[in-house]
Amino acid sequence: MPNICISIIRDGRPLSNPKLTIDDGRTVARLKRDIRMSKNVAIEEQYLLFYKEVLQDDRTLKSYGIREVVQTPGAMQISYQIGQNQDVLRIRPKDLILEVRRKIADKSKLELDKFYLTDTQSKRFDDSMTIDSAGIKVNGHVNCAYPL
Predict the structure, then answer these.
(1) Model confidence over 91-143: pLDDT tens digits?
(2) 80-90 tens-digit pLDDT
(3) So what's the architecture of 76-145 in CATH?
(4) What are the pLDDT digits (tens) for 24-34?
(5) Which fold has domain 3-64?
(6) Contacts for 129-134: CB closer than 8 Å, 24+ residues apart
(7) % residues pLDDT > 70 (the chain)
């Protein structure tokens, strides 16, 4: 039985201990019932996504290509925004801002010297800072800004 890690967000914040061990042959509807039972989140409040695709109740997790997920110790996820497009990135607290910019550039096909990262208040992050020293938290958000 694969370990599939899910993040449960309620009122804009992740719930603690989001891991459930489930069979990948299970339907999305069954997963929602399991979440209701173990995390006390009503089914009608659940909105399940996998790589930005809304999961349909009658399909199995396997049909979406969802397989065992191995969590990397110390890894975290942040979201970033380029214009109107938003995406997520797996990083580590000790990664440098420059390394994060490189990952974003690779993933989004941007030229590294054409953008920098800011917080939600438009404060620019120095490339030599770490994610931790910049104060970026798990499920945090950064913006990609362009010099004039």
Answers:
(1) 888 899 999 999 999 888 889 999 999 988 899 999 999 998 999 887 788 88
(2) 888 777 788 87
(3) Roll (3.10)
(4) 678 889 888 88
(5) Ubiquitin-like (UB roll) (3.10.20)
(6) 129/96, 129/97, 130/93, 130/94, 130/95, 130/96, 130/97, 131/76, 131/78, 131/91, 131/92, 131/93, 131/94, 131/95, 131/96, 131/97, 131/100, 132/93, 132/94, 134/97
(7) 76
